[in-house]
Specification:
The chain is mostly helical and 82 residues long. It is 65% helix and 0% strand.
Length: 82
């Protein structure tokens, strides 16, 4: 249960980093903000969790085949390619 709570906390950190990148007065790349936030969390919190393989497969592998489909819109996906 602790592993899932930590994974949800880190997912929240990713969402917060996206908001911070959009609200910053200086244009910062999102990965740079995520690295900085991750370094801050690692220095403040001790989240040493042993990740079991079944939790890894449950949390991280299912989104991988789906992610490349997000930039496309539905009409583009449905139209025949020329």
């Amino acid at each position: 249960m602790e592993t899932i709570a930590v994974a949800l906390f880190l997912l929240l950190a990713v969402v917060v980093s996206g908001a911070l990148a959009r609200m910053s007065p200086v244009a910062l790349p999102l990965p740079l903000v995520q690295i900085a936030l991750g370094a801050f969390i690692a220095s403040v919190a001790n989240l040493g969790v042993k990740l079991k393989p079944d939790i890894f497969f449950l949390l991280f592998l299912p989104p991988l085949p789906i992610l490349p489909q997000f930039p496309r819109s539905l009409p583009v996906c449905r139209s025949p390619s020329d």
